[in-house]
User: What shape does this take?
Amino acid sequence: MPMQDLQNSFKRDGVAADLQTVITALLNVTKEISLAVRQGALAGVLGSAQVENVQGETQKKLDVIANDLLTAALRENSHVRALASEEEEHSVALFNSGKYIVAFDPLDGSSNIDINGQIGTIFTMYPALDNVASDSPAQFFQPGKNQLCAGYVLYGASTLLVLTNGGPTRCFTLDPHSNEWVLTNGQLQVPQNTEEFSINMANQRFWGDNFKRYIADLLLGETGVRGKRFNMRWNAAMVGDVHRVLTRGGIFMYPNDSRNPRQPAKLRLLYEANPMAMLIENAGGKACSEATNKIQRILEITPASLHQRVSVVLGSANEVDICNTYLFKRDQQAEPVLVENDEAY
Ligand code: AFP
Assistant: This one.
């Protein structure tokens, strides 16, 4: 019975009943967002909200609507200790008795809203910390491997939910007739190899030399050392690019660059990189970030601030490994050391 698909998934993964209510409350809001997105101009939700968010980005009307709906729904759930949003400067304390904290990017890919492009809601949930005040951002300073739930809802040709609770990464399709989530892929599996890369090439002159070399060899294709031709895709919405990688493989990259020396990375750790990293790893892929003198597994990074940004290389495991060998070929000999807990990985 489709209406049970999500509950059956929770049961298979041993998701606690109270956490199920938090996930369901959030997903019910994404059904409303999906309706607003599909109505577009008819619902008066396109265009700019004429205000800037904490990221210094001009908010779209739908950013504000999605953020307000998600925040309002979670405020009603007594199991939520605190929430954090891309659109909120500070974390918001809710119930001191709550066992979970929730973070989300209410509408990833906002620049695609007015062109009917792919956009989505990315979300993640952790156990609340009892030794930290509910209103402290430190509630969210947990490594991504602590996530109890990670997922996104992709508002595309169909509305898809991709979710992991520590078990397989599963895909559900929203049935427009019943308005229920129907399980359509019980185990997404990222192919180990790929011929498809995803990056914003406009930033090429701002990348580090090692990364430039990696991309240059992809572009040389069968005429260069890689010995095969590559193709490129870039959605300008992480949620759309990651969904393609989860569906057919690929490597998605947003490396550090020199445009703003104070902020070399673009993507946010808490509500973009970490949930995507958990989804990718639980589908057999890899998700790494380039830090000083080491390549880190994204899920090992402990955030030091709510909106901390990190570089991201994720996708087909063997291709991520090849990219990492370029990132640390200082003397053309050194092999990278992929660290976990500061030990050889
Ligand atoms: P917006 O939500 O502001 O459109 O940003 C989307 C995003 O954070 C991520 O989803 C994309 O991969 C990335 O930014 C696109 O960045 P560029 O516009 O620099 O390509």
